Amino acid sequence: MAKDVRDRSIDPASREMLDVCQRAGLETAWDRFEKQQPQCGFGELGLCCRNCNMGPCRIDPFGEGAIKGVCGATADIIVARNLLRSIAAGASAHSDHARDVAHTFRAVSMGEAPSYSIKDQAKLERLMSEYGVDTQIALADAIMAQFGKQDGPLQFTGRAPAKRLELWKKLGIEPRGIDREIVECMHRTHMGVDNDYVSLILQGLRTGLADGWGGSMIATELQDVLFGTPTPTFSEANLGVLEPNQVNVIVHGHEPLLSEMIVAAAADPEMVELATKQGAVGINVAGMCCTGNEVLMRHGVPAAGNFLQQELAVATGAVDAMVVDVQCVMPALGALAGCFHTKFISTSPKAKFPGAVHMEFHEETAPETAKSIVSAAVQNYKNRNPAKVHIPKEKSKCMVGFSVETIVGALGGNLDPLIGAIKSGAVRGIGAVVGCNNPKIVHDYGHINMVKELIKNNVLVLTTGCNAHACAKAGLLLPEAADLAGEGLKGVCKALGIPPVLHMGSCVDISRILTAAAAVANALGVDISDLPAAGAAPEWMSEKAVAIGAYVVGSGVYTVLGTVPQVLGSSAVAGLLTAGAKDVVGACFAVEPDPFKAATLMIDHIDSQRKKLGL
Description:
This protein has 615 residues and is of the alpha/beta class. It folds into four domains: 5-58, no CATH class; 75-227, Substrate Binding Domain Of Dnak, Chain:A, Domain 2 (Up-down Bundle); 239-388, Rossmann fold, CATH 3.40.50.2030; 399-612, Rossmann fold, CATH 3.40.50. 49% of the residues lie in helices and 10% in strands. The chain has helices spanning 12-24, 29-35, 41-45, 75-109, 121-131, 136-148, 162-171, 178-188, 197-227, 256-266, 269-277, 289-299, 310-315, 333-337, 366-380, 404-410, 416-424, 445-456, 465-473, 487-496, 510-524, 543-554, 571-585, 595-612; strands at residues 48-49, 57-58, 233-237, 247-253, 283-288, 303-305, 321-324, 343-346, 357-358, 396-400, 429-433, 459-463, 501-503, 533-537, 559-561, 589-591. The strands form four sheets. It has a six-stranded parallel beta sheet. The protein is globular, with a radius of gyration of 23 Å.
């Protein structure tokens, strides 16, 4: 019996395409999720270990079977080790993204990547000053050294409040080199090394901080330097941005190095003329996931959707090329693309996919690669089968591109107006809502309902990643959405002409939120943990989200998760993360799948912080 699409997504375009997929017999992530039921209970609790070949071992949560692994590892040890490995993997993904950007920046500085240029000279000069260097190549070398650094501190941790820095030093979790922390995670979790769950979790926080205040922040800052710091721009979002009479190229993944070139190539008169000869009226580039966020906020390129919509986009039959780089790309896309004319094109030397045409990207030949990809899409247009084309009409306008610089500029050049609004109560606090989609939760349900509840209660929301896509589709990234906010927040938004939900970019751009939080805390002379602020990931699924959670909580921000992490097999680890950590780093996690209850937890925390500050 077919599953009711209303139980899978709240987005009307996605529901429409899910119905199309069901009728056509096309498999999606939701179908595969249902076929996995019931999922492994030991795995859900984090109670299985494959870290050596004496296993795999699993601990019986009911105490009726094994209570220790072959080596003697308890549930506490196994759960903590598994969590630490997830943090290491997530930090690797974000920070390796940063390494690629830093490598490109260095190539630009050396004159080895002539197709790229510096788009934000002012930010470049600020970074040179921050690093204490006087040439661009010296900055490039200093940034590259952050990865292999053997002793701390990382440069960008200097942006954190003095109280936070002192706490990190006291706890021994001030991050050293980015790669060092990740390697140490893997060493500590090898059989017979670190077997103290508290020690393991502290290393997880340290590794997360190396990503948040290191890798992710490097990616954000250098992408701004190379491609321009985002400023407010208008665009559209949802599957309806696909065009029936144009060549549709979707850029999907997380790194903007190639997508920037694809946007340029699609506007090349030679490519446009080629498209016309193929019978199309133009070339339409649309974004998916965080690569989509990157080109959305810098060029106004429309967003086709978030993580769980990638298969649905292909199923429209109107995508001539799905071009992917790294992260959050489903390997199922190859088989699905084979049901249509869609070319599935992989571009990263690190990421190859079954069923994909591999057109490898390198900075030195970026324009040529981009033109080849766009040309392949254009020439594929004639193979489109009109009988298989089904594009939902749903699309919404959105206002995006709120970098920290933009926000400060909108406030007149400093943070005083925002601080004043918080002190007066017009803005109750700040809510950072981010993260993925997960078929365990009805698509976009957690994102939209949490955000609506927050703004209704005068909480200004900052958003990145897949949550940003969800908010864009729901019309929450428009100034008019202020009408859904409480009277105080509505007044602030109307006065500034901004939405109550500010799009700050891709998932690495959560580092923008860290920078903003540090700046507000420094202006008030307090720690980040003292601020009336809270974070949330209502539909998270990836290891990157685990690393993000580690650095957000490690930075002092109370964070609510909408899907249950695999730690419940250890009451000690779960207790440390949801309660004990507050006494250690000033913040902890909460888990609440209901977005309305989760929003209430955030608001209660914000109110408690206001009271402590005497607001």
